[in-house]
Design brief:
By secondary structure, this protein is mainly β. Helices cover 3% and strands 34% of the residues. It is elongated.
């Protein structure tokens, strides 16, 4: 005598299970609503053996942030994904959360990335030999950046030029500048004009 098991489930919860005994050719499962109306009639002739229910992952096993994964044939499992985590599979490995090192391996990224060489305020980062980043400490007041004499690096230097001549806040267009005093460092406006064509006006 064959035995059929009917499992009744409401939403995600198991309500009941019933064992039904009878001949496999005559067994019928009939569903009716509360008024006795026919809803569904399934005969045993149309039922196929799908194997034990252990081969299935039930809906109510899935929590938030969970995916279905199988590392063995016909053996799906619920795999929960932690926050800020990448899921992947390395060569010869299984589906799993990956560490930073494993992500680099998967993406074929070598090295540890950019290392910041700066140690103090106003430091600069410059390209060293073979493109390796290096630190250039801040310069002194009024220094400027310039290329080194061999043209291979950047360095701070004091500007060799001097410029200590001063003049008035405003002047007359095309007027000739005159020295003010005997220091040679102060200019003043004048009433002598030179046109754009070079004529003294």
């Amino acid at each position: 005598m064959d035995v059929a098991r009917i499992i009744i489930q409401s939403d995600d919860q198991l309500v009941s299970s019933i064992n039904v005994f009878g001949g496999s050719q005559n067994l019928r499962i009939i569903f009716e609503d509360s008024d006795g109306h026919f809803i569904l009639n399934i005969s045993s002739e149309s039922i196929q053996d799908t194997g034990p229910l252990d081969n299935y992952v039930s809906k109510y096993l899935f929590d938030a942030n969970t995916i279905l994964a199988a590392n063995l044939n016909n053996s799906p499992i619920a795999l929960e994904i932690p926050e800020s985590t990448l899921i992947g599979r390395l060569s010869g490995g299984i589906i799993q959360p990956l560490s930073a090192t494993q992500v680099k391996e998967l993406l074929n990224i070598s090295g540890e990335g950019f290392a910041n060489p700066m140690t103090a305020t106003a430091d600069l980062i410059v390209g060293g030999p073979l493109g390796v980043a290096s630190r250039l400490a801040k310069g002194s007041a009024n220094q400027v950046l310039k290329m080194s004499s061999d043209g291979n690096s950047i360095e701070w230097a004091t500007n060799s030029g001097s410029g200590d001549v001063s003049g008035p806040a405003s002047s007359t267009d095309n007027a000739i500048a005159r020295f003010d005093g005997a220091t040679g460092k102060i200019l003043q406006n004048s009433g002598v004009l030179i046109s754009d064509g070079g004529d003294i006006l």
